[in-house]
Amino acid sequence: MFVFKIQLCLAGCTVFIGWSNIKGPIAWLSNSDLSPREAAQGPEGRRRQKVCKPPANFIHVKLEEYEPADFSTKEIILKKAREVCTCNHQTIITFFCRLFPVLDWLPRYNIKTQLLGDVISGLLVGIVAIPQSISYSLLANQDPIYGIYTNFFCNIIYVIMATSRHNFVGSFGVLCLMIGQSVNRHLQLAGYSDNSAGSSLVDNSTSASNGTSACDRSCYSITVALSLSFLVGLYQILLGVLQLGFVAVYLSEPLLSGFVTGSSLTIITSQMKYLLGLKIPRHEGVGSFILTWVDLFRYIQNTNICDLVTSLVALAIIVPVKEINDRYKEKMKAPFPIELLVVIVATIISYYFNFEERYKSDVCGDIPTGFRTPTLPDINLFSSLAVDAVPIAIIGFAMTVSLAEIFGKKHGYTVRANQEMIAIGMCNLIPSFFYCFAGSAALTKTLLKESTGTQTQISGLVTSLVLLLVLLWIAPLFYSLQTSILGVVTIVNLRGGLSKFYDTPRMWQLSKLDTVVWWTTMLCSTLITTEIGLLVGVCFALLCVIFRTQRPRATLLGKVSSTEIYEDQSTYKQLSSIANIKIFRFESSLYYANKDYFKTVLYKKTGVNPVLLAAKHQRVEAQANADTGNRKDACPPSTDMHTLILDCGAMQFIDTVGLSVLKETRHDYKKIGVQVLLANCNPSLRHRLREGCWAGEADSGGQLAFHSIHDAVQFAERWYHVRQEDSKEKDALQAAEDLNLQASL
User: Which PROSITE patterns match (predicted)?
Assistant: First the structure.
């Protein structure tokens, strides 16, 4: 026999075709596939296997692999270190341009084509941000001025460090809720009650570092919030520096959507007391949602009629106008700023009719102008805030990165996730020295920013200028603004989160598991706590992924007539089965968690349990031998198949347990005379099979793992034909020997 090699220029691959010196291709059989007599006869026995003419020509394709790059871990580390530590003029410029992207895009800023859109968008977002900044401060358990500080500083820093052109970074309702819960918990630990006086700002010289006795409730609240913001920013910067942006992928869209909806329900619940003008304690921890509603109904008779009427009128005005803005946003050049208009009108009416004195309505009170002297976070609070900062940091960067990637893809520019994490981290760390609480990309204002024609982050500077006007001159004018109006503004801006309820039927049709993840996260975030809800959601989503791989879909395949296509017999009609060949597809990787399910469903689909069949055959044979008194050579039990083909196209990997299962499967089926072939194995899977010797020395060259199902089927038919011909030849030889023996007698 001679073997020649044909070099084909197809995708850089080399195809080997083995050919014997007789007509017909080689069947690539080894000693393990021969009978004991033929194996003992050596090459002559093997030759008899090869000379049988096949029913159809079969060519076994073996691709020549590239030699793997020989890089040691040490060399890779040294190479990376040399790249990082190289210091020259170009690397320094590149480093600062990557750390501060504004240095890259600002020199190329086109004033004629981009400035007008940025100015208009920045003004509109700034107008909307004024009432939301004040209302979200209430949600974070802070004085109104601190919400304006937060949006002002965050926008300036984000302009310098962001790769996104459309994100608005500042106070975000879900984060404000989590911050407010943490602040309230620390206020209770410090001995402040909900009725504590002293909501006005104290002198800059008083700080929590001098002891809580020198700091009133408002001062201690912002001290806790800015210390929390410092830790949140520190966590986010570390994640970005360590290139851990991939962590965001574990927060799936259904999980985040469910979390936002659950948090929205909690926020609405916390704002109801302002709409009704009730003075009830703010509950924290497990069951706070239910306890708050119990208190609302318990003290419903104490409702402030003035606040209730004002809230209903504001809702009746704001909601329809915002619906009109949403419905005709493509036709309108800019949305109508109804929230700001309602806030201004409500403030004027409250001032002239003296709602505070006449109807005992709660108002914002004194809002100072200007900036306060920078301060340091309270290090003594870090130990108690370290855990609270983790979910806030995760949700903050997840929302920021998600929105940045959505609009980056929509408008055709690249967003760097790790840089976004560093940017949002700096937006929380630096402002913490200027009396700000943690923020992130805000969904409603980002959507408004994008829809009003923003081109770059210059619009963020324009928004900061609008807020600066409020900080320097306009803020005191909001003294008479009722807190019930702020509650209405907060609730109205949560419509997006609540609208997700309408999407759940469609989500159920697309993916039942994703819908279960959504409902689980939403209910846990609402009924337990936001932090626990997020943790439960992440764990449950990961369990769903494991469940999907632990009990994946498994099917038998049939052939499409007159083609080389094989598809699921339970899904498609008019598929033909291959005689005495079963093709089994397992739609998942094979690893320790699904090894038992793999064997169970394999036996069920093929209708053959090789272990039980072999044991039954052994018992029958033992009984027959006992009855006859002599021992005969064992022959395999009869089955309706001679070959089992495992379609590995959906297997991304197998671990050592999965490899052992494949070995056991091949060994068990071989006992009953069924060979096992693999098809559609990816290169890494083939490498693992080859290194693990899944078929022993018989498959050292990988001949029993095929590149397609059709190749495996052709090989199986050829193998079966050869075995049948050999069986006939053995019967003929045995008959001839018997005749010779009789003649000699």
Answer: STAS
Burial 117-137 (b: 16+ CB within 10 A, else e): bbbbbbbbbbbbbbbbbbbbb
What percentage of the chain has pLDDT greater than the value 70?
Answer: 84
Q: Round to whole Å and give the CA distance between 215 and 622.
A: 91
> Among 107-116, 435-444, 631-640, 685-694, where is mean pLDDT lowest?
631-640
State the pTM of this model: 0.73
What are the tokens at 92? 């320094």
Mean predicted confidence (pLDDT) in 334-363: 90
Distance between CA atoms of residues 251 and 451, nearest Å: 26
Give the span between the Cα atoms of 250 and 659, in whole angstroms: 28
Q: Collapsing DSSP states into helix, strand and coil, what is residue 645?
A: strand
Q: Give whole-number Cα distances, 530 to 178, 313, 445, in Å.
A: 7, 31, 23
- Rounded CA-CA distance 634/643 in Å is 20
Read off φ and ψ for residue 64, nearest 5 degrees. Answer: -85, 125
φ and ψ of 555, to 5 deg:
-140, 165
Q: Which two tokens stand for residue 669?
A: 């089926």
Distance separating alpha carbons of residues 46 and 29, to the nearest angstrom: 8
Q: Measured between alpha carbons, how far is residue 239 from residues 85, 141, 377, 398 in Å? A: 21, 28, 21, 12
Q: Residue 426 — very low, low, confident or very high, per pLDDT cuts 50/70/90?
A: very high
Contact, 161 vs 181, CB < 8 A? no
Distance CA 643, CA 666 (A): 11
CB 381, CB 208: distance < 8 Å: yes
CATH topology of domain 554-621+637-734: Transcription Regulator spoIIAA (3.30.750)
- Cα angle value 593/398/322 (rounded, 5°): 125
Burial of 415 (0-12, 13-18, 19+ CB in 10 A): buried
Every domain of the chain with CATH number 3.30.750.24 lies at 554-621+637-734
